[in-house]
Amino acid sequence: MDAVELLVEAGAALAGSLDPRTTMHEVAKLTVPQLADICVIDLLDEQGQINDVAVVAADEEIARGLEELRARSPLDPGGEHPVARVIRSGQPVLLAEMPDISLRTFAESSTHAEFMIAHHYRSAVVVPLRARGRTLGAISILRLEPSRPLGQAERPYKQDDLELAAELARRAALAIDNARLFSDLRRLERRLEAILINVAEAITVVDRSGQTIFANQAAADLLKVASPGELTGAQPGAIMPRFLVTDEQGRELDLQSMPGRRLFAGERPEPQLVRNVVRATGEERWLMTRASPVADPDTGEMLYVVNVFEDVTAIKRAQLAESLLATERGRIAHILQRALLPETLAEIPGVQIQTLYAAAGELNEVGGDFYDVFDYDEQRTVLVIGDVCGKGPRAAGVTALARHTLRAAAIGGQSPTEMLATLHQALLRQPPGADMCTVCLIVLAREEHGVRLTIALAGHPPPLLISPRGEVEQVGHSGTVLGVVDPLNISEQEIALAPGTTLLLYTDGVTEAGRPDRMLGEDGLLELCAAAPGVSLASFLEQIETGALEHAGGRLRDDIALLALRVEG
Predict the structure, then answer these.
(1) Among residues 336, 323, 341, 331, which one has the least CA distance to residue 393?
(2) Nearest-angstrom CA–CA distance, 521 and 551
(3) Residues 229 and 146 in one domain
(4) Is 164 buried (19+), middle (13-18) or exposed (0-12) by CB count in 10 A?
(5) Any residues with CB less than 8 A from the CB of 260 and at least 6 apart, and which?
(6) Could you give the percent of the chain with pLDDT greater than 90?
(7) S-S: 477 plus which of 171, 179, 293, 491, CB 3.0-4.6 Å?
(8) Which of 403, 494, 395 shows the shortest CA–CA distance to 444?
């Protein structure tokens, strides 16, 4: 797995959990065994001690041993261990070689030193986990001696490994911090709920016969009676006929359908949302009804049921409003998506051009796939297709930046490689936010007997060249993804297209359409391309879209963009 694949996989893994421990282990697992033999994540607790530790290793015995060692002897935040120094300084550390004498100098104990030496620690990178201006801890990746069966490295770590680890740590720190904040919020919510649920909400206590033996004033107000005494003095079932009670689907409910009576009947009902309409006035409210048992401590027999009624009318109305807003946001997203694509494409004498864009899902956020065709000079034309990481407003902004930066670079007469380098620098100057972008850029020059293409790829799938006989081959040399790290490595390839030849540019949403076990894939796309010479360009692109949708079960996971050209003659 290369650096880009690791970072892409990290984005998906980090979005999968809001549990701090799970997030830490997911981050650690990303690096083993592709990047490291051992990955350790150390976090500071609220007292500033290094206590939260996650360890993943290719050898599970090493992982268990290191976790037990850290549990017995936590690292000293003021000590000389590289983790402690990195947390204090906020600066990454590259330990290209770690001889035994070095291991002994920063070991927390003789047992710690013996553990590291016994397991042949060889090379390490330690980088800080920083989020929202705070250092949360550090992530360490380690390689063991390659003579060991589980050793992954042929070489010690170098500067490029440190840069990759730093980028991974930047993303992981924000995910871990988000998970911690969410966990703290959930704990606070549970404490507040324990304090308030039996005080602030409407409460009744009912015995097995259905008689209300206690009600608070909130319950009296909710059930439209003057006082709690009116509820406790009423005969069982006498209050409910004053209301029309239905579930969310509009089905009328009787008293036996309510959670309290179902609890007495031996069920374990979940909280129930009901629509409550006062028959006399038509006033409508939505209530969340919960029931809890009160049992005899000696016999376990259920004596009473505590009913808690929460008025959630405002929430339901907000949900309806949110639903309407979501529909409108989706409509705006589609409009914005179209605005990010060119209204018209440059015309090329003797060359047919056709495009297709299919958004993933319904009412989706703005995607990051884009294409463009514009004049370079009187004899040459630029064709571009690209894919920005992510969705939403940030992706939309990067998409617009990419298109306009490449157009501006072309006006300046830059070569394909120089245009991509200009966009790369523009992305690096954006505020942090995972602004990665892949691009396929082609400069087309018209010649007497066809056209000549100069192709430059920046981490993008190579174009497919389709001969008049239906033979398909990839063209272009793989290059570096834009907006990640320097140095940028882009090479150009020139090819000539004879009359009748078709060229297809596409984004990875095409080949990745479908479940992991039945994606369209490159082979499926190649089969579709073989039929290109016999149909029009528009029909050719529609066939590719249909094939992708069939593999995806009618619902794409990612946007797809297609750009095709065919030399006439």
Answers:
(1) 336
(2) 10
(3) no
(4) buried
(5) 206, 289, 291, 305, 307
(6) 36
(7) 491
(8) 494
Residue pair 496/447 in contact (Cβ under 8 Å)? The answer is yes
Q: Is the dihedral of CA 102, 108, 110, 115 positive or negative?
A: negative
| Amino acid letter for position 264 | F
For residue 472, the domain's CATH number is 3.60.40.10
Question: Which residue range(s) make up the domain with 452?
Answer: 334-567
Residue with tokens 């617009």: 400
| Contact between residue 341 and residue 357 where contact means Cβ atoms under 8 Å apart | yes
Please check whether residue 444 is in contact with residue 565, taking contact to mean a CB–CB distance below 8 angstroms: yes
Tell me which amino acid residue 234 is: A
Q: How many residues does the chain have?
A: 569
Return the number of other C-beta atoms located less than 10 Å from residue 407's C-beta. 17
What is the rounded distance in angstroms from the CA atom of residue 460 to the CA atom of residue 509? 12
At 231, phi and psi to the nearest 5? -75, -45
**DSSP three-state, residue 152:** coil
**Token pair listed for 181:** 């904040």
3-state secondary structure of 21: helix
The verdict on 398 and 295 lying in the same domain is no
Give the SS3 label for residue 417: helix
- As to burial, measured by CB atoms within 10 angstroms (0-12 exposed, 13-18 middle, 19+ buried), residue 132 is exposed
Q: How far apart are CA 373 and CA 360, in angstroms?
A: 23
Buried b or exposed e, range 133-161, using 16+ CB within 10 angstroms: eebbbbbbbbbbebeeebbbbeebbeeeb
Closest CA to 438 of 404, 465, 398: 398
Same domain, 37 and 123: yes
Q: Do 308 and 202 form a contact (C-beta atoms < 8 A)?
A: yes
Sign of torsion over alpha carbons 565, 556, 440, 429: positive
Would 502 be classed as within a structural domain? yes
C-alpha closest to that of 128 among 74, 82, 183: 82
pLDDT tens column, 378-419: 889 999 999 888 776 677 778 888 888 999 999 989 999 999
| 3 state DSSP class of 488 | coil
Q: Could you check whether the bond before residue 269 is cis, i.e. omega within 30 degrees of 0?
A: no
Q: Which residues of 91-129 are buried (b: 16+ CB within 10 A; e: fewer)?
A: ebbbbeebeeeebeebbbeeebbebbeebbbbbbbbbbb
pLDDT confidence bin for 241, thresholds 50/70/90: very high
558: its two tokens: 């990612």
Q: What is the pLDDT of residue 17?
A: 63
- Percentages helix, strand, coil for the chain (3-state, rounded to 5) are 35, 25, 35
Residue 246 lies in a domain: yes
Task: Tell me the average pLDDT across 197-226.
Answer: 83
What's the DSSP call for residue 510? T
